[in-house]
Amino acid sequence: MTSDRSAHIARFGTHGVWGGWDKFSPEQARAIEELGYGTIWLGGSPKHLRPIRKILDATEAITVATGIVNIWNTDAAVIADEYLELEDDFPGRFYLGIGAGHREAIASYQKPYTAVNHYLDILDAKKVPTQRRILAALGPRMLRLSADRALGAHPYLTQPTHTALARAELGDGVLLAPEHKVVVNIDPQKAREIGRPPVDQPYLHLTNYVSNLKRLGWADVDIANGGSDALIDALVAHGDAATVRAQVDEHLTAGADHVAIQVLGEDDPVGSLAEIVKAAG
Fold first, then answer.
1. Taking 90 as the threshold, does the pLDDT of residue 109 lie above it?
2. What is the Cα–Cα distance from 214 to 258, expressed in whole angstroms?
3. Based on the number of CB atoms within 10 Å of its own CB, is 219 exposed (0-12), middle (13-18) or buried (19 or more)?
4. Of 50, 115, 125, which Cα lies nearest the Cα of 83?
């Protein structure tokens, strides 16, 4: 089991690219693969997996993962069937990221831990392999579930301090793949002007993200009014490409296997992604 899990983790590579469901055109997806990124993460809360097909069709071997499918607005049996169809057509390339979203958006949101377990039970019954599932996880309990019933965890809106805590909770040999936002701009004020709005709305007004930030030591004054400069700088790497690369790589030093880079403020992120990948070393 350990060697099998390790092979799956290796498929992600050390760096990936994160964007919304409609963010990447087929041409951009091909360019991201050619740059050497290991994974394309498709974010949001779609009701079906069909939009993934165009990215898989456009690329040759890059891993594609959801970040995430929301358990509250999807039917687990339907998602399982769609996963199996993708697996038939693109063997070994797609990983199903699922999560409980946030209570403010879902009227029926109750007991997410129990609900995620139930969703996983249905995926088990439909023969979706444990090692092809990833859970959105921030707190200790969901992180432990990620280790027990999935390949690992995909924390969102975090910093390397959280990554170190998450690795300690997960233990070794479990995928830890945090997302990190970036703005390739050497002007700190302009970078914060780009980075602050997508952090503030909606995340600094959602209970699960605010609770996680407070666990990491951030105070109400940091979270209020769009976030303090210190908080935004921690959550949105900015500077030239080398500076951005160094900041996101702090997740790897802290124990992550992979970091998913989300470029903000650009309709076409491929240029910045090329600069970031070339900044290695």
1. no
2. 24
3. exposed
4. 50
Cα(76)–Cα(98) distance, integer angstroms: 10
Residue 235 one-letter amino acid: L
> What is the amino acid identity at position 77?
A
* Confidence class for position 106, pLDDT limits 50, 70, 90: low
For range 95-102, the mean pLDDT: 89
| Pair 263, 272: CB distance under 8 Å | yes
Neighbours of 243 (CB within 10 A): 15
Structure tokens, 103: 């209570």
How many of the other CB atoms lie within 10 Å of CB of 64? 20
**Tally of residues, the chain:** 281
CA distance 230 to 128: 41
Two structure tokens written together for 180: 């990190």
d(CA 180, CA 158): 7
Residue tagged 């995909």 (tokens): 154
What is the Cα–Cα distance from 264 to 272, expressed in whole angstroms?
10
Phi and psi at 59, nearest 5°, equal -120, 170
